Amino acid sequence: MPVAQKRNSILVVGASFLASAALIAPTTGVALATNDGQGDTTVSAAASKRLSAIRDTAAKAAIWGLAPEFSYRFNRYNKLVTAPYNTMAYAPFAAQWDNASTNAGNASVIYLNTSLSLSKTDVVYTTPPSNGTYQMSQVLDAFINTVADPGTRTTPTDNMTHYLVVGPNSKYANETSVTMGGVTFPVISLGTNRGEILARVLGDPNAPPSDPRSFASSFENVAKKYAVNTLEAFKRNGYAPVYPTGPDAYSIPPVTEERQQRAAKWRNVPDEAVPFFEQVGAALRLSSIPTKRTGIGGTLAADLPPYVVEQPGFDGVYYLPSAGQQRTLRNFKSIGLTAKGFKVPQGWGAAELNALQTGFTRGLTAAKARLLQATTDATNYWLYVNETDKFGTYKNTRAGYLNRASAIYAGGFPNLPTDGFYATQIRELGGNSPLNGDNTYSVTFLPPDAADSQLPADSVLPPITQGPGGEALGFWSLTVYQPDFSEAPAPFISQASVLNTAYSNADSTIVSIDTEASTITVLASDVGPLRPGTAILFGDNAAEFSDQLQPDRSYFIATSPVVNAAGTIPGIDEVTYTFPIAETWQQELSAKGTPIQQVNGSTPTPQGAIIELTSAQREVEPLRYGIVQPVSQLGSLQIESYEKGNPGLQPNADGSFTIWMAPSLPAGVPATNWIPTPSQAYLQSVYPDATLLDSNIQPILRMYYPQAGNQPPSVLPCPAGTTGCGDGLPTTYVIPDIINESNRQ
Predict the structure, then answer these.
(1) What is the pTM of this model?
(2) Over 70: is that where the pLDDT of 18 sits?
């Protein structure tokens, strides 16, 4: 649609939550609508009214309680399979289909996660210089409100910084800065005993390892300089950070089967109301609701550190964004939920418990429906997930709690829009048809000078904040996921991403080939880890070593590699790794038939035939291999890569850039511009025995450090009272349409 036709359109989404709720199946067997005995003439009007009140209260309590329940459950899960409390978990590989990464993991960033427990200790959070490579940190309280966001945008620096992170009972809780041992610590006061630190560091998963912005380079030179220590450990080390050591340093160690089984109960939101509210109650016992005077509450704007996130409705006096929820919590006493925990009220029977279950299901369904709101052509049918102040921090109102609950299903920890703006599509043209991996879609970004003089600027490259020299301080990327509302860690990166090997190289010589065991022996790779399920590819002469091998096609490491000590192979004074190769690989499937990303530390079992190797390695024209760098996302990093002469996003003749999302490479399209999607044919080839397979997809566009709203074009709203900013338009930049090319054929 021409810009002129969109100029006066309303750019914010608009359907009611419950109207969209009908599109989502409940997560339990309890129907959304039930009379709870209302059809029984023996039930009195008073009893019917009481059951209705239970349903209504339970729905509101489920929406309000999802945030503390998620934070509590996420803490417990990560303690078992990722890292102990107050210990940083380093993920040395990009988010992809075969690792847990984080909720809605993005392959363009390195994730560093810490689950906080601050009731008995203060924690020192060490960050490297934030200039040069884009970085952002979210420090979240037990209600998933962001209380601090140090990083490139808020605290640009060439120096390492040590933040003191404290809970409400710390003697430093009311401070913004404290000096000890010659070190000045900026203080981050959570206001709750439990919380999270989630850091994101730019890392290009498709760049060669030698590129300074590659995932490997960023992990080695930036991510490894982050650290989390208790204050006592920091002091004992001479007021310096203690970094991990040992064989599992800077990685997530293997997890025992027993721990995996214990962690399973914390993976998803409970289906039943009583266990859910019991978890909410446990969360409240660990982290009480802060007041407006907790921590640095009452601090004036002039004294507020730049990394502290102002609460919604900030009027010059700061208080913790989770303060002020006590009145809401008191409303849930009638169903047994208080600050002391949860207990089913005395005298309740089946009718009351059924009403509780019905209300609980209604509440969570409404939260999911926030992500299925009706969209319009004014946004080219993109849903702006974290627009304005609705995500990252949340108003203590009914609407704020609903947005907060929806954030859980959007990935758990959506950041502030000024740090990273998210937009998504699940349905074609805002209708009822889901985007499907069997179709071919295109998204075309026009060069900035192609924007019409009128605002909003339609379909140009995403506007990112620039430095004094005109360089982009942030970046943008378009990622393709598979949605699944039955799974809390969803949406998931698709295994189909390994179908594109355009950014991968078979440039490593295989040390030896054992034709009897059908194994290969290799050196360590600087691209990624050698572990079961890792996708690998082979060079042009692959078929000469097995008629089951083809060049530039993905295969998989079939088992945990055997580690051979340096010198085991004559002439090789390095550690080597030996393993067989699988033709295909299966993941766990959800109840809806969606492939689920691997659980942290689990040891998966290979599926598919083991490749029979028929020729030994040779000196002349040896067999070469490489680790596949899957293509689940493309964006500004790949444009920069192409400009540097590396594989990257190629421009069209008019200077525009088209990203293709399709089950196979469209005719005439550069492979570097293609994100593979999971078609039914592909899924059936991997899961031939499955009775239900889901091929729906969910694109998400992220803009890290988007251009400020008062500098059009910008996807961010213009600040109130700003003049010359699009004549009052809610936003002055519109993301391009997703075009279903299959409908054009």
Answers:
(1) 0.89
(2) no
